[in-house]
Amino acid sequence: STQSTGRQNYVVVEETKLMQERTNSFKAIFSDVLGGTFRGITIVIVGHPLDTIKVRLQTQRQSSIYRGAIHCFRTMVKNEGFSALYKGAASPMYGAVVFSSVYCFAYGQAKQLVLGRNLRDLKQNAPPIHKLAIVGSLTGFCTSFVNCPIDLIKSKLQVQRNAQSSQGNYKSSVDCFIKIFRQFGVLGLYQGITPTLVRNTIGDMFYFGAYEITKHGMANHLPDVVSILLAGSLGGVAFWTFIYPIDVVKSLMQTDHPRSCDRKYKSMLDCIRKVYSSEGFRGFWKGYGVCVLRSVPTNAFAFLAYEYAKDVLRV
Q: Which of 163, 168, 134 is nearest to 262 (CA)?
């Protein structure tokens, strides 16, 4: 009977451990989703006006309308009103809850997959750089399939300067989505998927890597809030600095004609060749200054929102 009681106690202990692991797993997933939601909303509110200016500068080619970021800002506000800076914001705002939640969920799962049992040590010590690179790349690749349609709709609205656009006359994000889907199906929403995959797979490697390394490196020297803000800023700068030419190509391909046979750029390589032949190396860096300027406050407060939302559940 003593042996039987011991076995029963062992079973109870193991079942309790299993239930605790499941509870912790659910809390981790929920905290990633919650943190991602707040992160996405923060990004749109803080960063969308500068993102609109960035896309306008990226997509103007030889006949430049804007002389720079400040001129672009003044011209847009003068000719189209202040609300023009938030053109296409509905797409990322609608998608903020979905994409940023999926984004942070994917990041959490990638960390679990790559780091495994060492995941708990992440709160004290940053893991090896090569593992952070794998985690970031997995996150970027997987979430590109959600990111691409959102960016496509946002970009098409951002470059639409008047109601009579030659590329669709889109009245809103929903209207843009419906028209593209009706005319070109699901594939129409993935215009520019190749540069999106390349950008995110490479960029998120530097994004999350710079963030985690900086956050842990500064943890013992700065208050938590300051270290998170600094780490988020550097993560954003690292992302855009290493992939900006690819982002220019993505913007050009996504704002090209929705009908494939009428497009100026037939592929990612074709776009690279044409930009380089007409504008040289500088053509790939249009709008970089305003992009980096945007990335600092946007990612600083985005990661702050993410971390503090997760801290609510103490995960």
A: 168
